[in-house]
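PROTOCOL LOG
Step 1. Enter all chains and additional molecules of the complex.
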Amino acid sequence: MPADVVEAKAYLDSSKVLVDRWLESYLPADHLEPRSLHQAIRYSVMAGGKRLRPILALATHEYCGGDIEGIDRPIHFAASALEMVHTYSLIHDDLPCMDDDDLRRGMPTCHIKFGEAVAVLAGDALHDIAFGLMARAGSTRAVEELAVAIGTEGMLGGQMADIEAEGHEVSRDEIIEIHRRKTGALIRCSVRVGAILAGADQPMIERLTEYGEKIGLAFQIIDDILDIEGDQKLLGKKVGSDSKKEKATYPGVVGIEQARQDAALLINEAVAVFDKYEENRLKHLAKYIAQRKH
Amino acid sequence: MPADVVEAKAYLDSSKVLVDRWLESYLPADHLEPRSLHQAIRYSVMAGGKRLRPILALATHEYCGGDIEGIDRPIHFAASALEMVHTYSLIHDDLPCMDDDDLRRGMPTCHIKFGEAVAVLAGDALHDIAFGLMARAGSTRAVEELAVAIGTEGMLGGQMADIEAEGHEVSRDEIIEIHRRKTGALIRCSVRVGAILAGADQPMIERLTEYGEKIGLAFQIIDDILDIEGDQKLLGKKVGSDSKKEKATYPGVVGIEQARQDAALLINEAVAVFDKYEENRLKHLAKYIAQRKH
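Step 2. Run joint prediction.
Step 3. Record the structure below.
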């Protein structure tokens, strides 16, 4: 493994510990009423996951001169909010009326474990807690960024397009558009919010936005590839589920070899957003994404 | 009809026109993609409704010296957000895995009209758009107020307790707690946000909070009574559905006569929050709620 990917991996591991600690402290305690709801929320959020979105927000925040040390920093609230929004979207995506998935991160999905009504409400609750936390970060701009990223122009629009595309032929442009919205928008938002809360100037925010867009799309293309040839044990979910559900996927449209090349190109473009001779963590994280196995 | 109730009715009617105009302009256009999602959102929000929550925010805002005239005022964003949140909660409450209702405001519910997947996403989208609008009002405090009011301590907690209470005996204290959360919290929040955005001081906010809590609980008790003896045509939904679903209701616990008396007492207490000789719109609105037929 190249040295920069090793560095990224170590950073991801140590940051995950921090993010998990913040999530633990910002989620409602599961002995408080309504207990079943709080248990379902904690079960879903603490089931694991790479915490990629909050970690991208942290790394960008630090890159822009922000400080992540201390207690109850705005960036801690924001990073936790990003992961909670991601989890809310997974809980609702997994519902029987949506993707109808039984397994997530190697464990039964929320509705399998707690029933459908609780799963709908647990997703709603995480959605809500996330916005409360983002507001606690003190920036209405950050709240608006989040709302746009996960709304009908972004994540929800992508989810809707994804459902509508099932069983249909889609073009390369169409699948890129679906991926940009469904997965890309929140990753882009994570990077932007990290920069905004560090007080970055507009040219910097735009440069980082480009970085976020490239890695966001690459991330989902690689996700599609892993669904074809990944290791079920590492992934914590069944492989081959996209094709079984006749989901539109990037390799399904352009072929797996072309998909691999396009993802690599996107990662190179993301790295090229920065100065050629500048070594930095965001570059390393991009390279990590290029070779991730889960 | 007493003169103050007539005044309240006229105010509700004229304010509803304003709120509908704002909602119309802040909702995504239904010719934009994802069209089916935008259509479902507009269908649900524009199906009607009293717009009580936004109107309470407006009336409180004016009471505290705020100005509601003009275009794109913070209070317009906030009022619209409150109605969207209310609609999101209705869409998700109506789902088959929740209350399984077919009829709402005299029309097929969202999932009956557009399917379950679209209904889940339309609720999610309204939840999201509402937070974006509340942030546009420029106050992170208002966003936090909303998040707490509709979270697991508030509306969602009430919804969960409501489901768990189905088919069980509950005490008067328990049903009050369910109603306080499920319906009361958002009504209380509407009043508070109206005051906060007008720059009201803390003693004023606390006095208005008490008013909001009283009318919020009275509103839901009257809702329960109307479900027993209301006019289905006026209500736009089936009567008797609470008892059919073995829902915990206030008259179910204390009897319908006692429920009527308790609602009247709460309204008197809400009115008594203000000076005895002070005539104002919030008093009128409280009295309107006491005698509402739908």
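Step 4. Note key features.
Residues 19 and 80 of chain B are 7 Å apart (CA to CA).
The radius of gyration of chain B is 18 Å.
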